[in-house]
Write a structure and sequence with these properties.
2 copies of one chain form a homodimer. With about 220 residues, chain A is an alpha/beta fold. Chain A has 8 helices and 5 strands. In chain A, strand 1, helix 1 and strand 2 form a beta-alpha-beta unit. Chain A is globular, with a radius of gyration of 16 Å.
Chain lengths: ~220, ~220
């Protein structure tokens, strides 16, 4: 069994926690990371990912995906569309939704893993406390894993260590894994501000997690 | 039930046949097409797709995917690597294999379909007579369809009218559907030559199909 792991690293809190989860599980020498440059409005995420990987002592590759911008019409890639300031709207998907974005990320990550002889993919998606993206749910990823295995003739395994954790529990896990110092390098704010705006859905959710865990956010220190 | 259809049109013989299959099944007004500009060595494929769509009287959009070229290391996007002149090598996958390429194509096609309110995707993949790409097999596409449905909360349906046809049968189907005139606009040759080289795996497979069907290839006419 191959025991190398590739972490999908966005530069945010959750994927950074996953880096440390993977290091504990597989060993630092076995872990690498991939970051997607998909035309996100906040280019700072790419810098954060590089810094986090360097800080954690693992390699990082940035892969471009220009297709989402061409598909257009969503808030995270189209600067003409304002990000909705709503958390967990029950009426509809948030307008940051890019149909299938996470499926594409994981398929490209699996392709890279295939080329490098890596079996394990790690992603920080969760179906608790989040915005309800259907491509981040456990059942979706289970089906995608099966499609990837058949489609690449591989034994790729998608790990989602945060899938059933609340933000509070994710912060506690990061603390237990020694990932807190790296949190100072992460980027969460939907509005791309640094220091974070504190008002957007992502900032509020992050703050809630740290408060409930009783831990100070190193990013605000 | 939505009855609009989106055809993944590569500019080759099979996807062109699928355009005419979709027109017969759904009606010309309901059919559109998408072509991926993924850094293929033979840019002529993109021109062919445009011409075929125009000839068939359906719309076409070209979506860029720059990720495969960044992943590198395969013959269809890397001009430094010679295309293997072997059909149906049983020992290994052909070196034109990009891990998961077809999974990516269909996921982006599904995203575009989602945005346009289209339920039906049509792709010309087949598991008969071909090079053994695992991401073109029926079981893979069935699993992918399930992942796409869950991941996009859609009822997307992937149609593969050529899945179990030999090249001979595909040519016969094209003939029955009135797709033969459009065949003069298609591109098949792995070496990007026009008129086709006649020696590469793709040219040989195409010629075999027309010969066995007892029909003259309009491209050679």
């Amino acid at each position: 069994m191959n025991e190398k792991a590739l972490v999908v690293l966005s530069g945010g809190q959750d994927s950074t926690t996953c880096v440390y989860w993977a290091i504990e599980r597989f060993g630092r020498e076995q872990v690498s990371s991939v970051t997607f440059d998909y035309g996100q409005r906040h280019r700072i995420e790419l810098d954060c990912a590089k810094e986090i990987a360097e800080f954690a002592g693992i390699s990082n590759v940035i892969l471009p995906i220009d297709t989402f911008a061409a598909l257009g019409g969503n808030a995270l890639t189209d600067s003409d569309i304002a990000v909705e300031r709503v958390v967990n709207s029950t009426s509809s998907l948030p307008n940051t939704f890019v149909p299938g974005r996470n499926l594409v990320f994981l398929t490209f990550a699996a392709a890279l893993a295939y080329q490098r002889g890596i079996t394990h993919l790690v992603t920080g998606v969760a179906q608790t406390d989040y915005s309800g993206y259907p491509d981040c749910r456990e059942e979706t990823l289970r089906l995608l894993q099966e499609a990837l295995r058949k489609g690449m003739e591989s034994q790729v395994q998608i790990h989602t260590p945060l899938m059933h954790l609340s933000k509070k529990e994710t912060v506690a896990m990061a603390n237990a894994l020694g990932a807190l110092p790296a949190m100072a390098l992460t980027h969460t704010c939907y509005n791309g501000e640094r220091p974070p705006c504190g008002h957007c859905a992502a900032c509020k959710l992050r703050a809630k997690g740290f408060v409930e865990a009783g831990i100070a956010d190193p990013l605000l220190g």
